[in-house]
Amino acid sequence: MALIRDNRGALLASNLSQYLAGAANTAGTPIDTNEMVRILNQFLGEGEQISSDLTSVTNGIYKKFGAIDKVTNRTEIVTSGIWSGDAGSLNAVYTSSAQLNSTTGKYYLDVYNENPLTSDVAEAQFSIAYGDVNAYGVPTLQQDDSSTLSSKAIYNQLKNVLLDSADAYFTDYAGNDMTSFYALNVNRARYKEKLDPGNISINLSGSVGLVTLIDDSGGTDENVTTAGRVYNLVSGSLNIGSSLTSNINTYTASNGQGFGLFYPDMGIILLNPSALSASVGGNLMAAVGSTTAQYHQSGSVSGSLKLYDALKKGADFQARRTENVSTSHYFVRANNREFNFSNNPTFVTGSVGAFVNSSFEKDPKVYITTVGLYDDGNELLAVAKTSQPIAKSFDKEIAIKVKLDF
Fold this sequence. Notes:
Layout: H1 7-25, H2 33-41, E1 70-81, E2 89-90, H3 97-100, E3 108-112, E4 124-132, H4 150-162, E5 170-171, E6 177-178, E7 180-186, H5 188-191, E8 194-195, E9 201-205, E10 210-215, E11 223-225, E12 228-238, E13 246-250, E14 260-263, E15 268-271, H6 273-279, H7 304-314, E16 317-318, E17 320-334, E18 348-349, E19 354-355, E20 366-374, E21 380-392, E22 398-405
């Protein structure tokens, strides 16, 4: 039911009164329902329009939608898991030794849901990179004249994308400068429009212990930057299905370092090595220098492979995405006198096109299985299938709602 509020209702009543008074003052003038519908539709929104022609019947293949048959330009918020198969939790992770030893492995590691060396259905889920403002963790040019200083390149790349030009460093919850980080970059095809704050949970396990990281989006403050929203990572747990959406244990590690930052609109998570070394394992500490020919190897050099090991042992990375989906609804109406015959060649027989069954002439029986949407040039734009055949005859009327998401 449409609601016409405020002075618009009074204006509608006035317009209708003027029209009816004019018709009454002219002897023999009938009430024009088309004119009344036109007046009403001036005050109704899209999707609320009415029609004076509710008994129109088509005898052809195509039927044009009326004003009351379309509800367009609607927006729905859709949320789903970001991993393969729309899963919300990733429990097993794999990487490729081939990439580790390649040029790209010096910059980042792709993480898969299955072993890419043995599975044909393995798909990259996200990537891990190590960034350091001082280029620690990778060979110097003196150690290797072909070094690309990849850790510094990663730091500066994300700094340019995520920070304002006036910011020299990333800053954690406690206000400490993050001169290095582990970056988790979710594939764009997976997070689509944006990751869903309040639905991120990362388990990391190491020699010190197990920590579960979530974001602090449940608070009242929201920090919006040039890269969109940004939240702090904290130690806690999600309470799915509870009125209390999350439980925060600590905002910092035991050494006073914040755990990192979460950029949901960019699909990027930055983890603070100093906080992870105190909460997960000492081998996750920030690199303090450079070693010849070492990028993501064990030893004194920190890198992507170490965080990968902590994720693998933690065995649970939960994340969801959210997106605004434009939706249109089309109501396909077939009254009792429409669409009772078929163009299928098996419906008729012989050179004169006689019905296969003589009873079809007065009492046809057909089944609707497909609805086609066409433009004004009768070009097919979309096809909708019914879940099961729908019987149609002279004593049945059918309304089918077709929903288009884009």
